[in-house]
Amino acid sequence: MIPGFYKIVEERILDAQRKGEFDNLSGKGQPLDFEESGSVPEDLRIAYKILKNADYLPPEIELKKEIVNTEELLAGMEDTSEKYRVLKKLNFMKMKLNLMRNTSILFEETEIYAEKLVNRIAKK
Questions:
Q1: Tens of pLDDT along the chain (124 residues)?
Q2: CA pair distance 110, 116, nearest whole angstrom
Q3: Is this model's pTM higher than 0.70 or not?
Q4: Would you list the domain boundaries of the chain?
Q5: Which of 25, 62, 85, 109 sits between 20 and 30 A of 54, alpha carbons compared?
């Protein structure tokens, strides 16, 4: 979208809020129900519900959790050689996640390069 268009849309939403046009909407003040997703085909809803109840996470989400855990581990590490090894593993996981997503390059996870790591360690 064009930045100017965002501004127009935002102004119209704020104007409607001031006029109270959103005050009488059905479900106001109620939590959103994400169970019934219109984006999931009807024939897959039961399967998705079973997987959810079994605490199953899609491989992409599992990998994302592992990336976050590895980043936290990396932030607390002192040993340079070990940090480099974990950094290589982290970059591989991010590359794997990017390949799994099959979306625009704008949504890809950026890799952390060894040069940044070396520069940070050199400052200490």
A1: 567 778 888 899 999 999 998 888 888 888 876 665 566 677 877 887 888 889 888 888 888 899 889 988 888 888 888 888 888 898 888 888 888 776 666 666 666 665 566 667 667 6
A2: 13
A3: no
A4: 60-123
A5: 109
